[in-house]
Amino acid sequence: EVQLVESGGKLVQAGESLRLSCAASGDTFDDYAVGWFRQVPGEGRQGLSCLSTSGFDYSDSAKGRFTMSINNARDTVFLEMRRLKPEDTAVYYCATVIEGDYNDCLQSYEMERWGQGTQVTVSS
Questions:
Q1: Tell me, what's the pLDDT at 26?
Q2: Do the bridges between strand 118-123 and strand 11-13 make them parallel or antiparallel, or are there none, so unpaired?
Q3: What is the pLDDT of residues 49-84, one digit of tens each?
Q4: Which of 55, 5, 57, 50 is nearest to 26 (CA)?
Q5: Which of 30, 71, 80, 81 is most exposed by smallest CB count within 10 Å?
Q6: Looking only at Cα atoms, what is the longest distance across the chain?
Q7: Within its chain, how far is the Cα of 116 from the centroid?
């Protein structure tokens, strides 16, 4: 089964950009839909973007500033975040679900496997 490892989170200032990575250990994403989510304390995990056989999809909160991509080997996905704001402060996760086993890969309850998360802190 795919194991997910996120990296790239750090402290940045408002207005800066940051790229997160999610590596699939021991597998590729070919048989999965993979998504990016974030969570702040006391709240549920919010879907940001998802890659599936239908292509890339973004939530309204991610459109315009966040871009998801995948490497040629299809074993690492990225989340490029621009013009970061303090309200983007959260733990960011990637997650997967077997392709075809879901209705909406932007919904956290649809996802089956999760990485450990990476902290992004945006200072004002």
A1: 86
A2: parallel
A3: 999 999 999 999 999 999 999 999 999 999 999 999
A4: 5
A5: 30
A6: 41
A7: 12
pLDDT value of position 51: 97
The residues facing 18 across adjacent strands are 81
* Contacts made by residues 62-70, CB under 8 angstroms, sequence distance 24+: 62/36, 66/36, 68/36, 70/29
User: How far apart (Å, rounded) are the C-alpha atoms in residues 22 and 16?
Assistant: 20
Quickly count: other Cβ atoms within 10 Å of residue 23's Cβ.
16
pLDDT band at 1 (very low <50, low <70, confident <90, very high): confident
In the structure encoding, which two tokens stand for residue 96, read together?
């997967």
> Encoding tokens for residue 124?
């004002």
3-state DSSP: the chain helix, strand, coil percent, rounded to 5? 5, 50, 45
